[in-house]
Amino acid sequence: MAEEVILLDYWSSMFGMRTRIALEEKGVKYRYREEDLSNKSPLLLEMNPIHKKIPVLIHKGKPICESIIQVQYIDEVWPDTNPILPSDPYHRAQARFWSDYIDKKTAGPCKALQRETGEKQEAAKMEFMEVLKNLDSELGDKSFFGGNVFGLVDIAFIGFYSWFRTYEVVANLSIVAEFPKLIAWAERCLKRESVAKVLPDSDKVLKSVSDYRKNILGIN
């Protein structure tokens, strides 16, 4: 275990997708361990005793937690292939700002979109659509968030694309129709082998969430 790269993750986690995409971009071989989030493994609890959450990247027997930190770690440890962060200090700071923005502004509303109904879900819809508007504005007419190069912000956000259909169905959002530039951006990202290999099928995500809402939460 000491020399290999291990990722503790869950298949539909848009956060874990970031780490998997970064590893694929770098051509790093790793061992994937699917976690049961209702019965977390002793290894997960040992490697992330503070938050007890996936994803956890284990390299040379040592844990790296939090997906954006993992992506930056991967970029630093394997710098020779497909740089993820810009070399220019200002552009690097901007990339970190927007990836941090995505983390801080999406976790709450995205959880509520899939688990709540009524006023709580409506509030989450407004929050999430505001995030999409800001990201749409930041993307503008660029191919990727960093310009012509696939990078940190793209990796930070592309996993959410596999959840768009779920949000449209369970929360009655209109993402595809209202944000064609973001959809075109996502389709460009999907042309990369790393992204296409990692992102799950949107219908599979929808079925998983629908089953959870019905069987666990009692929401039809």
Textual characterization of the structure:
This is glutathione transferase. It is found in: Cytoplasm, Cytosol. It is built from eleven helices and four strands, in the order βαβαββααααααααα. It folds into two domains: 5-77, Glutaredoxin; 89-217, Up-down Bundle (Glutathione S-transferase Yfyf (Class Pi), Chain A, domain 2), CATH 1.20.1050.10. It has helices at 14-26, 42-47, 67-77, 89-115, 118-139, 152-161, 164-171, 175-178, 180-189, 193-198, 202-215; strands at residues 5-9, 31-34, 56-59, 62-65. With 220 residues, the chain is of the alpha+beta class. A four-stranded mixed beta sheet has the order 2-1-3-4. Helix content is 60%, strand content 8%. α4 (89-115) packs parallel to α6 and α7 (164-171) packs parallel to α11 (202-215). The mean pLDDT is 96.
Short description:
This protein is of the alpha+beta class and 220 residues long.
Briefly note the structural class of the backbone: alpha+beta
What letter string, H or E per element, gives the SSE order? EHEHEEHHHHHHHHH
Number of domains: 2
CATH topology of the largest domain: Glutathione S-transferase Yfyf (Class Pi), Chain A, domain 2
Strand content: 5-15%
| Name of the top-level CATH class of the largest domain | Mainly Alpha
Shape: globular
Which blocks of ≥5 consecutive residues have pLDDT under 50?
Answer: none
> If classified by CATH, what would the architecture of the largest domain be?
Up-down Bundle
The largest sheet, given as strand count, sense and whether it forms a barrel, is: 4 strands, mixed
Number of strands: 4
Enumerate the strands of the largest sheet in spatial order, edge to edge or round the barrel.
Answer: 2-1-3-4
CA gyration radius, whole angstroms: 17 Å
Please count the helical segments: 11
**Whole-Å distance between the termini?**
44 Å
Helix coverage percent:
55-70%
- Round the mean pLDDT to the nearest integer and report it: 96
Give the quaternary arrangement of the chains.
Answer: single chain
